[in-house]
Amino acid sequence: MTATHPPETAPAAAARRPMFRRRSAIPGFSLTMGVTLSILSLVVLVPLVAVALKASQQTFPELLEAAFNARALTAYRLSFGAALVAALVNGVFGVLTCWALVRYEFPLKSLVNGIIDLPFALPTAVAGIALATLYAPNGWVGALFAPSGIKIAYTPLGVVIALTFIGLPFVVRTLEPVMRDLAHDVEEAAASLGASRLDTVLRVILPALGPAWLTGFALAFARGVGEYGSVIFIAGNMPYKSEIAPLLIVIELEQYDYAGAATVAVVMLGVSFLMLFFINAIQAWARRFS
């Protein structure tokens, strides 16, 4: 007598079915995935591969010379250093700005909320000209510091200010939905258990905002590294002093050194990928314990 086996239940059969064969309530997975991969390849992958192939046309000594000569290293230091400082500044003041917008009501709140998004809509060249005019030695703000010997425009400090200006909305808008979902009951519960205001901020509020803060920080940093239009007007563009890496790429393109420009671009791309990978790894680790 042959043994009979009970029929498999639907959940058990679905559990063993490969992911790409699972049925969905909304059909069209193959079509949508194909379109997504095609657009991603044409817009992102193919241009990046083309840049890498252009850089690889040089010999290895030429590649090293183009990527790590003294002028390029100075430009990397300014671009990544200024972007990092600006992202950290936005990380602090972005939290305070977002907290004020979410938790308090005050006159002209809608106007302030709209001004936060101004760097998104303002052309970067217009922002650069405005900042350079404002912080120049004869500008409204620059004239206040000029008698003390502090020069803002046409220095690395001016680059940091420009990158802070264009990076603030990334932090504020990333934190805003998370902060709105953070109920007041959490703060009241911490206070009822005897926590001080500082303990509530450090142990309750900031850990809840951590993953969103890292995302905003990464976006502000990535935008700052590749920013060009708002920086060149206030940086001064002096080689070995206030020249950013994107400007160095443009200069090499104007000199028809396409391989050298591609090499600098590949180095910036690689460092940016490493930074974003590191930040995403921290976010994934934080979500495991949230």
Key attributes of the depicted protein:
mainly alpha; globular; 290 residues; 14 helices
Question: Can you tell me about this structure?
Answer:
The chain is mainly alpha-helical and 290 residues long. It contains 14 helices and no strands. It starts with 9 loop residues before the first helix and ends with a helix.
Write the layout of secondary structure elements.
Layout lengths: L9 H7 L12 H27 L4 H9 L1 H34 L5 H8 L1 H4 L2 H12 L6 H4 L10 H26 L2 H9 L4 H30 L2 H7 L9 H10 L3 H31 L2
Helix pairs in contact: 2-14, 4-9, 4-11, 7-9, 7-12, 9-11, 9-12, 10-11, 11-14, 13-14
Structural class by sheet pairing and helices: mainly alpha
Helix content: over 70%
Query: What proportion strand?
Result: under 5%
What is the number of strand segments? 0
- Give a short account of the largest sheet: none
Number of helices: 14
Secondary-structure element order, as H and E? Answer: HHHHHHHHHHHHHH
| Mean pLDDT across every amino acid position | 84
Radius of gyration: 25 Å
Shape: globular
Q: For the terminal residues, how far apart are their CA atoms?
A: 55 Å
> Unreliable runs, pLDDT <50, ≥5 residues?
none
